[in-house]
């Protein structure tokens, strides 16, 4: 990545609907350059999507919690590992926004949302309904100090190689 790539990402992050022609005008480069750069950033996996960002809060789910899950590690029927089987189970629950395999006290970390604290119990019960999950702990997020972001990393990576 170079400075133009970062300026391009900055622009499309701030104004995702700006369009290639307008981006070329604002950045002072040819339309083909903008399109080629966007294509290259997507091909390299740096830009991973163009869809709208959605707000769970606006969709009626203002409670965010993080579940640390411990699972049985043994392979399931068909040879799938516990992580894969539980991951498939969790992917079927709409309130589960993301799941990561982790090191430390647990095996998986899941970010979930709920309509209320009472509804969070329903979500947790659905998560725990899988037989390979042996233990869980939950923390409720009270406020977001730094939202998920990658743009500062992209800016810092210019010139670092």
Keywords:
6 helices; 19% strand; 4-stranded antiparallel β-sheet; 161 residues
Explain what you see.
With 161 residues, the protein is α+β, with helices and mostly antiparallel strands. The protein has six helices and four strands; from the N terminus they run αααβαββαβα. It has helices at 3-14, 20-27, 31-43, 82-91, 117-127, 151-157; strands at residues 63-71, 96-101, 108-114, 133-141. A four-stranded antiparallel β-sheet has the order 2-3-1-4. Helix 2 packs across helix 3 (31-43). The longest helix has 13 residues, at 31-43. It is elongated. The termini are close together.
Question: What overall geometry do the principal axes of the alpha carbons give?
Answer: elongated
The amount of beta strand, in percent, is 15-25%
Helix content: 25-40%
What ranges have pLDDT less than 50 throughout 5 or more consecutive residues?
none
| Number of extended strands | 4
- Taken in chain order, the helices and strands follow as HHHEHEEHEH
What is Rg?
20 Å
Average pLDDT score: 93
DSSP helix count? 6
**Biggest sheet, in brief?**
4 strands, antiparallel
Structural class of the helix and strand makeup? alpha+beta
Q: What is the first-to-last residue Cα distance?
A: 8 Å
């Amino acid at each position: 990545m170079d400075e133009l790539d970062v300026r391009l990402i900055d622009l499309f992050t701030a104004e995702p609907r700006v369009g290639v022609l307008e981006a070329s005008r604002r950045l002072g480069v040819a339309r083909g350059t903008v399109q080629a750069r966007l294509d290259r950033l997507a091909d390299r996996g740096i830009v991973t999507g163009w869809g709208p960002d959605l707000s769970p809060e606006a969709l009626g789910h203002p409670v965010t919690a993080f579940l640390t899950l411990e699972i049985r590690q043994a392979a399931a029927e068909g040879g799938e590992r516990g992580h894969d089987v539980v991951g498939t189970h969790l992917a079927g629950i709409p309130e589960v926004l993301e799941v990561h395999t982790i090191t430390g006290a647990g095996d998986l970390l899941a970010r979930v949302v709920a309509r209320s604290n009472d509804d969070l119990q329903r979500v947790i019960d659905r998560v725990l309904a899988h037989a390979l999950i042996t233990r869980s702990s939950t923390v409720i997020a009270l406020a977001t100090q730094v939202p998920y972001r990658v743009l500062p990393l992209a800016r810092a990576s210019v010139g670092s190689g």
